[in-house]
Amino acid sequence: MNLDELLVLVIEPSKLQRTIIIDYLHEVGLQEIEPFEQAGPALERMQHVVPDIVVSSMHLPDMTGTELVSRMRDTPALMDVTFLLISSETHYRYLEPIRQAGAIAILPKPFCKEELETALRNTMHYIRDLHDPEPQESDELEFMQVLIVDDSPLSRKFVRKSMNSIGIEQVVEAKDGAEALQILKQRRFDLVISDYNMPNIDGLELVEHIRHYSDQPTVPVMMITSEQNEKRLASIQSAGVSAICNKPLDYDTLKRLVRQFTTGSDL
């Protein structure tokens, strides 16, 4: 799949910001770009043509970016559309639902060209691998067993699809740490990818139990979190995680780490 084959919807009320974003998109090779000032008309357009990427601001005249992505995820045809948010918003209440909805990136506003290019590169690689996976040099990944632990079904779905796109098909899901521990008693895994904030047993408790009380204490554990508290992050690190990744996930980083943990080499 080539860049000029992708359809991008840009939803931004500011004409200046809209122009900047569209110019950047053109520079990286995207040609099919449709601009919108509000979310409503963009959603209406999506009922007729499903885009490959939606780039949206947070505060729109008719709704927030949070409401927009929620409506998209509630529509079967739009559930898997790649969503990229550009916003100066920092409030947890607005950003966390977007992180949980499987957004591929959240960029600050104002942003620099390099930040947008990085987010788009990750997006392109994700879409490319999803539609046209590259053949693996070996079938090592085909037999890898991965456990995904997250209370958000949409986040689990995004990580599962990411695993599938790089050649890993043996994926099991758990909705929280408690369910994950029950699954770990029954099967062995090559990698555990867990969210941090979850009900019942959170990611930190899960890691501590795996490292001290399970029969697979050396399994690599990748923690995905939007946590910013330094003390909590330090606690996660000292619990024995193999890597801490920000949410939204950086797809290229995810690919590299998964290959490193499962095969000992880089993608």
Automatic annotation (TrEMBL):
Pfam families from the UniProt entry: Response_reg (PF00072)
Modification 4-aspartylphosphate occurs at: D195
Signal sequence residues: none
Keywords, in A-Z order: Phosphoprotein
InterPro entries: Bact_response_regulator (IPR050595), Sig_transdc_resp-reg_receiver (IPR001789)
Limits of the Response regulatory domain: 7-124, 145-262
Record-given protein name: Response regulator
Organism: Marinobacterium weihaiense
